[in-house]
């Protein structure tokens, strides 16, 4: 028997599943298909493990890796900041009804030949050797400035123009050393190069706020992760559209 559809969506990547879900909720009849036996497209979580080896056309897996169905392997691993935009979208769209999240227990950086835990509270910060004692005090002053900063209230600028003052100039204003600059830029703001230093400081202030607000929600870490892998995200959107 032939059926007619208003929209045909090819692939089950995150964008495709969001579109499919929204179109279904708006009353459209949607046919959603994918050549793969799993959700997620290029950012899928592959399970069982045998499917991962099959995808990359290599023999295995070895028996030492245990039962294949106990594995979920992300093709593009990511964490979410607890108060980030994506989490807000998931909550607003009620997709969280179909997802279980786990708080990541901690994040780490490699420096000076050692692995260091990124401090998650004041006690951790005092014990951490990622920065010296005087740098910790300067960092706290910058953190206080960022947490009290309000883009709509110039009184909170403290003579810093967030759109004209560069991040480099902001760090110099607080006399921050190289260790604390690297810590803020890469462990907190999650930049992957040094180019951010010459951008307006409004961006770094926003990222510090986001990290701090996310950490305040969870205490141990600012990061969340879908319990069964990132492939749960597109699957959640697809399910939201089918109800």
Automatic annotation (TrEMBL):
It is found in: Cytoplasm; Golgi apparatus, trans-Golgi network. SUPFAM superfamilies: FAD/NAD(P)-binding domain. Its main location: cytoplasm. GO terms for molecular function: GTPase activator activity; Rab GDP-dissociation inhibitor activity. GO terms for biological process: protein transport; small GTPase-mediated signal transduction; vesicle-mediated transport. Pfam families: GDI. The keyword Transport does not apply. Keywords: Cytoplasm, Golgi apparatus, GTPase activation. InterPro entries: FAD/NAD-bd_sf (IPR036188), GDP_dissociation_inhibitor (IPR018203), RabGDI (IPR000806). GO terms for cellular component: Golgi apparatus. Belongs to the Rab GDI family. Regulates the GDP/GTP exchange reaction of most Rab proteins by inhibiting the dissociation of GDP from them, and the subsequent binding of GTP to them. Promotes the dissociation of GDP-bound Rab proteins from the membrane and inhibits their activation. Promotes the dissociation of RAB1A, RAB3A, RAB5A and RAB10 from membranes. This is Rab GDP dissociation inhibitor.
């Amino acid at each position: 028997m032939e059926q007619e559809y208003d929209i045909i969506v090819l692939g089950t990547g995150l964008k495709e599943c969001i579109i499919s879900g929204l179109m279904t909720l708006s009353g459209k009849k949607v046919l959603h298909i994918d050549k793969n036996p799993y959700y997620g497209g290029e950012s899928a979580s592959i399970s069982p493990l045998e499917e991962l080896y099959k995808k990359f056309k290599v023999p295995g897996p070895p028996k030492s890796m245990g039962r294949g169905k106990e594995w979920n392997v992300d093709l593009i691993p990511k964490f979410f900041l607890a108060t980030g935009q994506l989490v807000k979208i998931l909550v607003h769209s009620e997709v969280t009804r179909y997802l279980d999240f786990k708080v990541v227990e901690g994040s780490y950086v490699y420096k000076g030949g050692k692995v260091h835990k990124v401090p998650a509270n004041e006690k951790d910060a005092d014990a951490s050797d990622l920065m010296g004692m005087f740098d910790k005090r300067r960092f706290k002053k910058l953190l206080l400035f960022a947490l009290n900063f309000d883009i709509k209230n110039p009184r909170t600028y403290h003579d810093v123009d967030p759109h004209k003052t560069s991040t480099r100039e902001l760090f110099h204003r607080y006399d921050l050393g190289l260790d604390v600059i690297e810590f803020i830029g890469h462990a907190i703001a999650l930049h992957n190069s040094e180019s951010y230093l010459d951008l307006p400081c409004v961006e770094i202030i926003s990222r510090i706020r986001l990290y701090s607000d996310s950490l305040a929600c969870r205490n141990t870490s600012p990061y969340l992760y879908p319990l069964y892998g990132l492939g749960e995200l597109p699957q959640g959107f697809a399910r939201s559209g089918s109800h």
